[in-house]
Amino acid sequence: MNATFIRKTPFGPVAIAWENTGRGPVVRHVFLSTPARPADEEFRRVFPDVAVASCLDIRAIVAGIRALLAGGDVEFDLDLVALEACPPFQQAVLRATHRIPRGRVASYGRIAAQLGRSGASRAVGNALAANPFPLLVPCHRVVRSDGQLGGFGGGPLLKQALLAREGVAPDGSGRIVPARFHGAG
């Protein structure tokens, strides 16, 4: 396992755990900073003895994360992440989430329905709460069915800021308008 740290972003440090595999470098986990703990501290708590390293592919991911946090239109390839380390249902949720286009949102319930599991919106929320690849799999684009933002591992302010950078802002009542929902008119 290796570590790469992005020390300065508009939202605090970001930490990436990755390893070389037969298919090249693969991201195992992305840590976002929260108001309670910077990502590099959380990373060191979880992986205390990991070597700091980088390579061309990881530097490209770092550049993509920087661009995304600055508001750029960036989509990451799912081949860059260790999706196989997740349980099958979570893999399906992450794949569905990855397909939500920039500037749009989907509800937890809509993703559950897409997966043939209507009524499993809480399970979708739990799968996204445990998303080991935030930003690479844009779970910030999933909101409650009533348009409220819902949870996010980087905190509600980061979720709102990421959506705003994509042109998705809550209305006066704090809800995302239906026209911004993926698949809406």
Give the helices and strands, then pairings.
Blueprint: E1 2-6, E2 14-21, E3 24-32, H1 39-46, E4 51-52, H2 56-69, H3 88-98, E5 106-107, H4 108-114, H5 121-129, E6 142-143, H6 156-165
Parallel strand pairs: 1-4, 5-6
Antiparallel strand pairs: 1-2, 2-3
Describe the 3D structure:
- The protein is 32% helix and 15% strand.
- Helix 4 crosses helix 5 (121-129).
- The protein is built from six helices and six strands.
- The strands form two sheets. Strands 3-2-1-4 form a four-stranded mixed β-sheet, with helices on both faces.
- The protein folds into two domains: 2-80; 86-180, Winged helix-like DNA-binding domain superfamily/Winged helix DNA-binding domain (Arc Repressor Mutant, subunit A, Orthogonal Bundle).
- It has helices at residues 39-46, 56-69, 88-98, 108-114, 121-129, 156-165, and strands spanning 2-6, 14-21, 24-32, 51-52, 106-107, 142-143.
- It is of the alpha/beta class.
- The longest helix is centred in the middle third of the chain and has 14 residues, at 56-69.
Distance between the termini: 45 Å
Residue share in helix: 25-40%
- Sheet with most strands: strand arrangement: 3-2-1-4
The portion of residues forming beta strands comes to 15-25%
Taken from the alpha-carbon principal axes, the silhouette is: globular
Structural key phrases:
single chain; 185 residues; alpha/beta; Arc Repressor Mutant, subunit A; 2 domains; four-stranded mixed β-sheet; two-stranded parallel sheet; 6 strands; 32% helix; 15% strand; globular
